[in-house]
């Protein structure tokens, strides 16, 4: 009767503890997906990713502006000047005469680059006003309009190559942002399971301490009745002390893991975090071919493969274009005039034209141009091999991760079964010890197996969800919804 009464007290006490925990109003209960979403919204890593994305966007806008018409207004308003200047006299002598004038000008320039040729079309209109205050005269000079064209000859065309490479960089940056978000999922999942394991360890430690304490009380009663030895009582007292120490260690680990998770995920407040053990994603098989296809379509690395080859080809073209010969064609056509009134500038202006080719040809460079070109070609070939090797590594990483993920689903089921069996075995062992037909050694073994099974189950969950988010990161594809991963 006394033994049954102690067992009843144990059951009631455990129930009161669970009720007290459930009624805690300062508890923040979170699932894995909720923690992931909070981290993507509030973490420093997420804010850094957004900043990098904005930087890449404005770099892209800057690149596009190079191919748009440019219009600039410049001038000198006013250009007042009061000084003394030397004036050469007819007899060869010099006199310093006072000068007081205003020489103002206003110019409007237009420029448009042509990517196909690397040339530039430009236009200008200019008006200059000169006022001599000493002689009370005003003169106007100007160019009503002028147009021209500048064309580098047989030189490297940076505009043409930038038009091929910069869009690849921009698309690469967009996919890199998605990858950064998925990488946050991977990182915060690790911190989530660090805290979850610490909480499970604390729960196990508290349960073991409570159970050991109750069993010790029962053993003391048996000892008084002469049914157990003093050695068994000492063993239980030692188990109780170890369980008490384990509770303190587990509480420390919970505090440390909780602070780490809060810091990374950006979880504000002082509420105690309690994590919900996640279930595995519904059973589904992932094909390596599907993941590879999505990865080569979505990942920034796949875009980088193309970009790196293009940049190597650009460097070869640049080395060949910068071979020492510098030749530029310049041609312009316009009208100019001068007069005492502003309208005289625009009345019957006089035409002006010019065409010139400027060139510079190295006579002797000791093979410098050829060696630069050969170096660039060697680097291009090396880049081709390097990209091919990176592609193989890229494929192998994906195939390995797919295999791991598919294995994790089976492993999850096995560890879940082991956890259920160990828990049932532990319950039976506790009841058998109370009834007196199980040794303290066998009871300790049941304790250890139950704890190990719980921890193995959490570890299997960690491996599964880590593999799941790693698979999303490698493919940028949501296999639950069967759609590409996107972020606004």
Describe the structure using short key phrases.
488 residues, alpha+beta, 7-stranded antiparallel beta sheet, 10 helices, 61% helix, disordered N terminus
Give an overview in words:
- By secondary structure, the protein is an alpha+beta fold.
- It has ten helices and eleven strands.
- It has helices spanning 2-22, 32-42, 44-65, 158-224, 230-265, 288-298, 300-321, 342-345, 368-435, 440-475; strands at 27-30, 70-76, 80-88, 94-113, 120-132, 137-153, 272-275, 326-339, 350-360, 477-478, 483-484.
- The strands form three sheets. Strands 2, 3, 4, 5, 6, 8 and 9 form a seven-stranded antiparallel β-sheet that branches. A two-stranded parallel ribbon has the order 1-7.
- A hairpin with a 4-residue loop joins strand 10 (477-478) and strand 11.
- Helix 2 (32-42) packs across helix 3 (44-65), helix 4 packs antiparallel against helix 7 and helix 6 (288-298) crosses helix 7.
- It is elongated, with a radius of gyration of 41 Å.
- The two termini are 68 Å apart.
